Amino acid sequence: MFTGIIQELGEAVSLQRKTPGARLAVKSRLLSGPARTGDSIAINGVCLTVVEKKGDTLRFDLSDETLKSTNLGALRPGDRVNLEPALKAQDPLGGHLVSGHVDAVGRIRGKKKEGEGFKIEIEAPPQVLDFLVEKGSVAVDGISLTVVDVLQDAFTVVIIPHTAAVTTIGMKGVSSTVNLEADIIGKYVAKFVGKMKSGSEGLKRKNLLDAGFIKE
User: Fold this and answer.
1) Measured between alpha carbons, how far is 106 from 140 in angstroms, rounded to an integer?
2) Is residue 143 domain-resident?
3) Which of 152, 187, 167 has its CA nearest to residue 84?
4) CATH number at residue 15
5) Tens digits of per-residue pLDDT, 141-155?
């Protein structure tokens, strides 16, 4: 589990295709020190496992599914990537709960200066938009951001100067792809409410009444 608070900008060293999947090498100045084989690290919001460590370079295996459902397959040597180690029990939850399981790849449709920061419009499919609410949370390339507007086929976020400076979002322009993960709590709530409405087993109105969560 992660929080969407990026701790370092790493650098892609290589992406070697193999059958199946690929092996990704990333240079990390900060996280490579404490990292161990088997550790989980989110790269652009994708939860990956360290399979090898040599000096300041970490290597990760990518499955075919990861290559198909994220933008990691498009990485080139020298590309910067967002890095976040797995959340420890004593760590502060500075962003929101992020699983590192990407729902879809979105595309930046607009980016304009707003004050000292930017307002970015991101095209997204229904499997992401259905779980977004204004002032809610979304992970964009692993960055915990607040949703400003939910549109018919897109949503907007505002990027403050600090976030633009310490993550890849400040470097990306129109047409760039981004990994998207909707708030996991919203997904669970939607599932339970759907069961309640359909009358199937699970969370029902009577359960909520009996537990005192809602009143007649």
Assistant:
1) 9
2) yes
3) 167
4) 2.40.30.20
5) 999 999 999 999 999
Sign of CA dihedral 158, 162, 168, 174: positive
Residue among 46, 67, 63 nearest 143 (CA): 46
| Nearest by Cα to 22 from 56, 58, 80, 63 | 63
Amino acid at 145: L
**One domain, residues 178 and 124:** yes
For residue 198, the model assigns a pLDDT of 63
Take residue 33 and report the two structure tokens written for it.
Answer: 């020190």
Domain tally, the chain: 2
Give pTM, 2 decimals.
Answer: 0.89
For residue 18, which phi and psi values (nearest 5 degrees)? -145, 175
What is the pLDDT at residue 215? 73
CA distance 151 to 128: 12
- Rounded to whole angstroms, how far apart are CA atoms 162 and 132? 24
> What pLDDT is recorded for position 89?
86
Q: Determine the structural domain holding residue 119 and report its residue range.
A: 104-182
Residue-wise pLDDT tens digits, 53-99: 999 999 999 999 999 999 999 999 999 999 999 998 888 889 999 99
